[in-house]
Structure formats: structure tokens, C-alpha cells
């Protein structure tokens, strides 16, 4: 299901730094891609805007020009991070959630891999290597919420959508990834949510009946709460974890704790015709503008995106350089216990590319 067969001669990449440290780490990812430019003929970048800051300036968080450019001009994109407010802001809607929908990027693929020398959570062996495959278009993220005032006070409700179509295609994506790895775990809570999670569970479980090539994958199931527990206690039992949208988001942040920092965990939002790299971390308002944001997650997201598109050599060159910088630990940003600045890490990675 990767787009490797679509690798083209010309590659146009949309850059959407969006909010907060996205403005610092997406340029870092661009620098890393430029460093492997000889592996990617006719490389072009298009600067695009979106985010809460864009909303406060222009009244829209996702300008139509950005969407049009992504659809008409770009082969792929890199998205930074967004500072969506925790309160309701009239007229605002998360641009990343919208982009995933508009571009039908139905899978969020998040590899979480230890850099061995980085101190893990106490007591957990530093050799985590798993992939969270998060459904990206539905669940509670359809954002159908309502607030009513009743005789007993306010009452808020949200609709949670799980469809057979979305569950099947995320299941297929996860099984595809699991073909090269020993196990796949389905994460759900169907003992409580027997209708919604029940549908997710039965649909994903049935995927190998439709496509027999997946029958060689060992399938396990785990309720989401015990999955988090086991993730911390014995992360090595997990390999590919496929989950509905919200569980997948939470699981991947939790897994990031096992590998030192959210600052090193990449992702791609993948559909059948477009792919968008995106660091798992958010906009980090506490460190914005200080020049100490960890660029590794974004640079790895760029490599993951290139890999997905079939630019394997360029992707591997970036990954190898990042791995050696992180492993040697001489240039680490403060989230990993170091004192390096973003530009120091980028320079070191580029030197090794
Ligand atoms: N790069 C991940 C990121 O920006 N996370 C923040 C986030 O997703 N916020 C919620 C939203 O805007 O939907």
C-alpha cells in the first residue's frame, strides 16, 4: 500500500510549518532533504500556511490556497505542529484534522524506535521497536459535539464514528506493514464499546480472510487500557499496533516516553495518492523561539515520507545520519538531556548525510 510505485522524476514538497516549533523544525527537515538532493531529481519546495496563528491573522486556519496547492501542485507535504486551543473558538477548526480528511490520508503511521543510549523510563529495556498504525479519519475526530442545557445542568455529547470501510483499509495498511514484522496487535475496547470498537475489531480481524497473503501474520488483541500498561511493562510484546484514531494518538505519545522523547518520533499521514510527513510532537509553546526544539522527529518524518514515495536511498541516508547523531549523543537537545541547539543537531546530521 506504499506509494513506492509512484516515485516520479520531479518531486514537489509542500511545507506547512504551522504553529509554534513547527516553524523551527520544518526548515530543519527541508535542509536534510536538500542534503540528499542528488538522490531526488528536480526537487522543489512550496511554502504554505495553516494553523491557529494563520486563523488569528486571516480568519481561516486552512486557507483554500493551501489546499489547492497541495492538491494541484504538490506530490507530498510536511506538516509541523498546530496550537489548537483547548476551548471552543468560533470559526476555528483544526487544520491538521481537516487536511487528513480532505486529502484522504487515512493512516497515520508512527514508528517508535529506541535510540539505544538514550535513558529510557526507569526499569524499561531501551530496545523498543514498534509501529503504531492509527486510523486517521474518524472515531471522535469527526468532531460532532453538542452542548445542551438540561434541568440538571449542562450535558455534552460527542458522536464516535467507526465504519467498516475505514476499519478495513486501516487494517489492510497495518497487515501490509506487519508482513515484514512478526506480529500485529489490534487495540480496542470492545468489552465496553461493543458496537463501535466491536465493528473495528471484527473488520480488522476479517482482513486476512479477504487477502490470504496476510494469513502468515500473527494477530493478537489487547484492550486499550491494558495495552498501555503492557507497553510500559513489556514493550517488546508489541510490534505493529493498529488502533482507532483516539487510542492510536494516545498510544503513540505513551510509546514516545519509552524512547526518550516525543521529539524523536516521526509519522506519515498516508493515503493511496498522497503522503504527508508530520512529527508526532505538538507546537511546544513552552520552548518556542528558544532555538532548542528537537529537529529529529521532523527530519525522520521527512525520511519516512521519502521512503513511502520510493526514494529509498535518500531516506536511508537521512535515517543513518540521524541514528548516528542520536546514538553518539554528543549533539542532543535538552529534551534528550543534552545542551545542543536545533541548528547544531541539524548541522551535524547534514555533515553525516
Ligand atoms: N504534529 C502534531 C501536532 O501538531 N499535534 C497537536 C495537535 O494535533 N493538536 C490538536 C489539533 O489541532 O487537532
UniProtKB/TrEMBL annotation:
Domain called Isopropylmalate dehydrogenase-like: residue spans: 12-349
Q: Does the keyword Transmembrane apply?
A: no
Name a Pfam family for this protein: Iso_dh
Instruction: Give the GO biological process terms.
Output: isocitrate metabolic process; lysine biosynthetic process; tricarboxylic acid cycle
Q: Which UniProt keywords apply?
A: Magnesium
Which Gene3D superfamilies does this one have? Isopropylmalate Dehydrogenase (3.40.718.10)
User: Do the record's keywords include Nuclease?
Assistant: no
SMART domains attached to this UniProt entry? Iso_dh (SM01329)
Instruction: Identify the GO cellular component terms for this protein.
Output: mitochondrion
List GO molecular-function terms, semicolon-separated. Answer: homoisocitrate dehydrogenase activity; isocitrate dehydrogenase (NAD+) activity; magnesium ion binding; NAD binding
Membership in a protein family = Belongs to the isocitrate and isopropylmalate dehydrogenases family.
The protein's name is Isocitrate/isopropylmalate dehydrogenase
Amino acid at each position: 500500500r506504499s506509494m513506492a510505485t509512484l516515485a516520479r522524476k520531479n518531486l514537489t514538497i509542500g511545507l506547512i510549518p504551522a504553529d509554534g516549533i513547527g516553524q523551527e523544525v520544518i526548515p530543519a527537515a527541508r535542509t536534510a532533504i536538500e542534503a540528499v538532493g542528488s538522490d531526488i531529481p528536480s526537487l522543489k519546495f512550496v511554502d504554505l500556511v495553516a494553523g491557529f496563528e494563520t486563523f488569528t491573522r486571516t480568519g481561516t486556519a486552512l486557507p483554500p490556497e493551501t489546499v489547492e496547492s497541495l492538491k494541484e501542485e504538490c506530490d507530498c507535504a510536511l506538516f509541523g505542529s498546530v496550537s489548537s486551543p483547548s476551548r471552543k473558538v468560533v470559526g476555528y477548526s483544526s487544520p491538521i484534522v481537516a487536511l487528513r480528511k480532505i486529502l484522504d490520508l487515512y493512516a497515520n503511521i508512527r514508528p517508535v524506535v529506541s535510540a539505544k543510549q538514550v535513558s529510557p523510563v526507569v526499569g524499561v529495556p531501551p530496545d523498543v521497536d514498534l509501529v503504531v498504525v492509527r486510523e486517521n479519519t474518524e472515531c471522535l475526530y469527526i468532531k460532532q459535539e453538542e452542548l445542551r442545557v438540561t434541568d440538571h445542568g449542562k450535558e455534552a455529547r460527542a458522536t464516535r464514528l467507526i465504519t467498516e470501510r475505514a476499519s478495513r483499509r486501516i487494517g489492510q495498511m497495518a497487515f501490509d506493514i506487519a508482513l515484514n514484522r512478526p506480529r500485529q496487535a489490534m487495540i480496542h475496547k470492545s468489552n465496553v464499546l461493543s458496537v463501535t470498537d466491536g465493528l473495528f475489531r471484527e473488520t480488522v480481524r476479517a482482513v486476512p480472510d479477504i487477502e490470504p497473503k496476510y494469513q502468515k501474520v500473527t494477530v493478537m488483541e489487547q484492550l486499550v487500557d491494558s495495552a498501555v500498561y503492557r507497553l510500559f511493562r513489556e514493550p517488546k510484546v508489541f510490534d505493529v499496533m493498529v488502533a482507532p484514531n483516539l487510542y492510536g494518538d494516545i498510544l503513540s505519545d505513551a510509546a514516545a516516553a519509552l524512547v526518550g522523547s516525543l521529539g524523536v518520533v516521526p509519522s506519515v499521514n498516508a493515503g493511496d495518492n498522497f503522503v504527508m510527513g508530520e512529527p508526532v510532537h505538538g507546537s511546544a509553546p513552552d520552548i518556542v523561539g528558544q532555538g532548542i526544539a528537537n529537529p529529529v522527529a521532523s527530519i525522520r518524518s521527512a525520511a519516512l515520507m521519502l521512503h513511502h514515495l520510493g526514494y529509498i536511498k535518500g531516506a536511508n541516508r537521512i535515517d543513518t545520519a540521524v541514528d548516528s547523531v542520536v546514538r553518539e549523543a554528543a549533539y542532543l537537545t535538552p529534551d534528550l538531556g543534552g545542551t545542543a541547539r536545533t541548528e547544531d543537531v541539524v548541522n551535524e546530521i547534514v555533515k553525516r548525510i
